[in-house]
Design a protein that fits this description.
Helix content is about 50%, strand content about 20%. α3 packs across α5. The protein is built from eight helices and 13 strands.
């Protein structure tokens, strides 16, 4: 019995190894092909646990998830023989594992290369039928639909299913784009200058209208002021006349005081008067003697003789210093 134990252990170990080599698992994100001595035996293995014969069958796994072909931007000619830089990408996944293995040996790089050729050929044909205006204005969605349909038909022979084809960017070449931007800037500058000119014209019109209204308002205000001032002067003259008629003595006294105040306003004033002048009659005669008609100005009070500052007049007999 003790001699048989090593043999049993070896048999068990060999059985475990052979058993582990006879079982394989296909994941949800994978597709698998089972070969028998290099020949495809089963190409549509479902996800789960499967069995094989060790050293007779072998299994190859492929990624069943969506793959992305994002190629470098390419240059294409339009109907107008204008160059456009197009950046596109393709989403694809394995549709038929047997065809995928036979045509591209199960290589994603080879599949991307073939798909790139198919998409570039489709873009070259579609862009060659259209002008730049057609492509930019709204034919991009139609172009992507046509590309997807043709790419799906062409990629079916590769065992590949095209999920989506998109154009990320369609641009003019850099040299052309620079000139286009300059023209756009010049056009925007012209529009801005037009707007500024219209604004300046409107501003001048508004200022002219405001100046006209200001002139009219000021003229009307000055007219009303002159009318009111004239009415006030007339009223004042009427009041003075009534006051003079009521009490001529008091009015003459009041006007003489006004003349004294204006004549003796400064300490440096000097009055040069003739000996018979009645200018200071209220100083000599407080009662105020009546002046001759030649020395009185009716309605204006006492007539003030001609004076000079620190000077003398001809025929002068004396002087009075205001100090």
């Amino acid at each position: 019995m003790r001699r048989a134990l090593p043999i049993v252990a070896v048999l068990i170990a060999v059985s475990l190894v052979v058993g582990s080599m006879s079982v394989f698992t296909v994941r949800e994100t994978q597709r698998a092909i089972k070969f028998r001595l290099g020949e495809i035996l089963t190409s549509n293995l479902e996800p789960g646990l499967h069995f094989k014969l060790p050293f007779v069958n072998n299994v190859r796994y492929f990624d069943a998830r969506v793959q992305t072909l994002d190629q470098e931007p390419q240059r294409f000619l339009t109907q107008e023989k204008k160059n456009l830089i197009v950046d596109a990408f393709v989403k694809w996944r394995i549709g038929n594992v047997r065809k995928f293995y036979i045509t591209v040996q199960g290589s994603s790089e080879r599949a991307n290369l073939r798909l790139s050729e198919i998409v570039q050929e489709g873009l070259r044909n579609e862009f060659g039928k259209r002008t730049i205006r057609d492509i930019i204005s709204g034919d991009r969605a139609q172009i992507t639909r046509l590309l997807q349909r043709r790419a799906t038909e062409a990629a079916a022979s590769l065992g590949v299913e095209v999920v989506d084809v998109r154009l990320k960017r369609v641009d003019l070449p850099e040299s052309v784009s620079e000139s286009v931007y300059q023209r756009m800037a010049a056009e925007r500058g012209r529009v801005a200058r037009e707007f500024r000119a219209e604004g300046a014209e409107a501003a001048e019109r508004i200022r002219a209208e405001a100046d006209r209204q200001r002139t009219v308002i000021v003229a009307e205000a000055e007219r009303d002021a002159e009318r009111i001032r004239g009415a006030g002067d007339a009223r004042a003259t009427e009041t003075y006349a009534e006051a003079y008629q009521r009490d001529t003595g008091f009015y003459a006294f009041y006007r003489s005081l006004e003349a004294y105040r204006k004549s003796l306003d400064s300490k440096d004033d000097v009055l040069v008067l003739s000996p018979d002048s009645r200018f200071f009659r209220y100083f000599d005669e407080p009662a105020g003697a009546a002046m001759p008609a030649s020395d009185e100005v009716p309605g204006d009070g006492v007539k003030v003789p001609e004076t000079t500052s620190r000077g003398r007049s001809s025929g002068q007999a004396g002087s009075v210093d205001a100090r």
